[in-house]
Amino acid sequence: MEVFAIHKGDVSENGQIRIIDEDRLCYIVESNSRGARGIRTISKQLLEEYVNYFRLYPDSSPEKARNDLAGNSDIDKFEYGYTSSLSTLAKMALKRADDKKSSNLLDFEKQKRPLQQIFYGAPGTGKSHAIKNITEGKRVIRTTFHPDSDYSTFVGAYKPTTIEVPLMTVIGTKAVPVENSDGSMRTETKIEYEFVAQAFLNAYIKAWKLFAIADNGNKANEVYLIIEEINRGNCAQIFGDLFQLLDRGENGFSEYPIIADKDLQKHLAKAFADMPYLNVPAVGGMTAEKVAIKIRQGEILLLPRNLYIWATMNTSDQSLFPIDSAFKRRWDWQYMPISDGKKGWQIEANGKRYDWWQFLQKMNDKIGSTTNSEDKKLGYFFCKAKNNVIDAETFVGKVVFYIWNDVFKDFAEEAGDLFKDIEGFLSFNNFYTNGIDGKAKVVEEKVERLLLNLGLIPVEEISNQDEDFISDDNSEDANGNLKNFDKYSVNGKGNYSKGMAVYRCVELYVEQNKNLTSDEIVNAWLSLKINMPNLIETSEMHEEKRLKTKDSRFDDKSKELILPNGDKIYVSNQFNPVRINDFISKVNSQNWGIHIEKTED
Fold first, then answer.
1. Which 3 state secondary structure label does DSSP give 13?
2. Torsions phi, psi of 344, nearest 5?
3. CA distances from 62 to 7, 68, 80, 87 (A)
4. Using CA atoms, how far apart are residues 11 and 92, in angstroms rounded to an integer?
5. Angle formed by the axes of helices 498-512 and 577-588, to 10°?
6. CA distance linking residue 219 with residue 203, whole number of Å
7. How far is CA 449 from CA 350, 389, 393, in A?
8. I want to staple 178 with a disulfide (CB 3.0 to 4.6 A). Which of 98, 163, 167, 373 is the partner?
């Protein structure tokens, strides 16, 4: 028998029918028509026939409904005499169900979060951290997949459990409890089997209970089932027939329910014993009311729209258990790019400190150019700092171990000078030596050698240059002799390195010409024909060059400048004495109100 969305107190649109009471089998209705008032008992079983009839023939008349239905069931034909009231109630029930479904769907469409999505990217890109932030304050059930995960560890199964029971003995023909010397009852431990729900089932039950107590499912509190490392387990084996539930309709519910096995049905029926009315859609050829009953009785499984299943996946682990395309199609995919975590972390080695983000940029460039793969790159949170410092021991144990064993194991020769050492080749065992206590001790000189091989500059040396500038490359003289660090003022102010002096000049030009586009600014500077390749570029020029280059230091060789209209341009910092002198000569000769001079040492 269907469960209808009309209840005590509801009144028809024409005011002729009002429900004054109801029980499991009947509605008690008050009928007012043409001045006549009557109280009638309407069978819900009979009303179900009318609801199904008007669902198929919404424009039919009450008289035709009576003629078509009477005599086709065991119900007393006399009851069909109330066909006007039955037709009105049926249309009330259908309209109420449609209104609530429309309202629920509208409410559901307002939320933008995908019901099923996988956060994927390189290790350390903050996938789990992102999920944690999004689900802050929500109901979260978390699990982790691994090679031994299966359906029973994900859904649930019968397991042995221990219980304390009274110790019994037989005296004559009776079993009597055994007492301790103090008169208390003696107990013993016994093993029995009971169904133990796991992560999926716990989330499923919680979601339906929250859905049921909401306003007919409206704005039901969300439940998040989080699966860490989803591709470290065999998804086809773990999900089994649950795979079918992942097909969600526009309303957020599963489109294809599955039949629960007997053990699972018993557990669900017990869990949902006191659950109130469920406002669910009709699926699988069943009416909405029958779907609600079967869910409460545990006969079918159907994902509610407030149950979110999110997962994380390291691209570096995608070869463990490849996920087939059919499974992939049922998820939204959220890529987590490698980006600067803005924590200011530093690597400490051999008494010096190196910028962690600069290391990641250079190491990831090396990984990409050597392996032609994005999978093995490192994210910002691959290694955690303590008080903003990653010590040498942590760096070797986590980072060097990873890049040596998982990244460059088969690419050592292609890595060029990365593992070059004064004594020859820098293998992983060179990073350790035996300490006084016999334990392995990190050789910090080797850590420093690896960082220098990547082209990193100690933070202390960077800070001696301009505060927000990374390097002043190619600053040797015209003959390639020792570097010089001449400083320059712009319009009588500052003490800039060559690269920063150039940047400040372009910045002043932008401030004086706020209405110019990025193309107009770039063309103005390139018209000076300064002896400097790629002196200034639009963002389009810069990105096009980025796609073509294999230069691991590409990002270090220019500095971004944002224009008042939001456009970006990029200014080169690759100035040696010859280039800077040419720049000074040509800029100072312009009527731009910009003048550069070398400052005194």
1. coil
2. 70, 25
3. 22, 10, 10, 6
4. 9
5. 20
6. 17
7. 10, 19, 15
8. 167
Confidence bin at 78 (pLDDT 50/70/90): low
Q: How many residues does the chain have?
A: 601
> Which helix (H) or strand (E) is 360 found in, with range?
helix 356-371
User: SS in 3 state form for 381-420?
Assistant: HHCCCECCEECHHHHHHHHHHHHHHHHCCCCCCCCHHHHE
| Highest-confidence segment of 65-79, 168-182, 226-240 | 226-240
Radius of gyration of the chain (CA): 37
What's the mean pLDDT when you consider all of the chain? 84
* Residue 291 identity (one-letter amino acid): V
453-484: burial string, b at 16+ Cβ within 10 Å, e else: bbbbbbbeebeebbeeebbbbbbeeeeeeeee
Residue 106 pLDDT greater than 70, yes or no = no
For residues 538 and 544, give the distance between their C-alpha atoms in angstroms, rounded to a whole number.
10
Q: Residue 451 and residue 363: Cα distance in Å, rounded? A: 9
DSSP state of 275: -
Tell me the per-residue pLDDT of 317-363, one tens digit each, with 9 for 90 and over. Answer: 555 667 888 898 999 999 888 888 888 899 999 999 999 999 999 99
- Whole-number pLDDT of residue 343: 87
* Integer Cα distance of 117 and 332 in angstroms: 4
Contact, 460 vs 454, CB < 8 A? no
Helices then strands (H, E): number in the chain? 19, 27
CA atoms of 345 and 379, how far apart (whole Å): 13
The one-letter amino acid at 560: E
* pLDDT the model gives residue 195: 85
pLDDT digits (tens, 9 = 90+) for 488-518: 999 998 888 888 899 999 999 999 999 999 9
Q: Which helix (H) or strand (E) holds 174?
A: strand 174-177
- Find tokens 């998820």 and name the residue: 331
What is the rounded CA–CA span in Å between residue 264 and residue 270? 10
Residue burial 545-565, b: 16+ Cβ < 10 Å; e: rest: eeeeeeebeebbbbbebeeee
What's the helix, strand, coil split of the chain in %, to 5?
40, 25, 40
Residue 181 exposed, middle or buried by CB count within 10 Å (0-12, 13-18, 19+): exposed
Query: In which element (H, E) is residue 333 found?
Result: strand 332-335
3-state secondary structure of 38: strand
Residue partners of 600: CB distance under 8 A and separation at least 6: none
CA gap 338, 126 in Å, rounded: 9
* Cβ contact 551:473 at 8 Å: no
Q: Is 168 helix (H, G, I), strand (E, B) or coil?
A: strand
Tell me if residue 142 falls in helix, strand or coil. Answer: strand
Residue 185: other Cβ atoms inside 10 A: 10
CA gap 279, 282 in Å, rounded: 10
Give, rounded to a whole angstrom, the gap between the first and last alpha carbons of the chain.
95
Taking alpha carbons only, the member of 52, 49, 44 closest to residue 26 is 44
**Which regions of 361-515 does DSSP assign to beta strands (E)?**
389-390, 420-421, 424-425, 432-434, 440-442, 488-490, 493-496
User: Shortest CA distance to 141 belongs to which of 328, 332, 297, 311?
Assistant: 311
> How far apart are alpha carbons 124 and 398 in whole angstroms?
12
What's the CA gap between 412 and 160, in Å, rounded?
A: 51
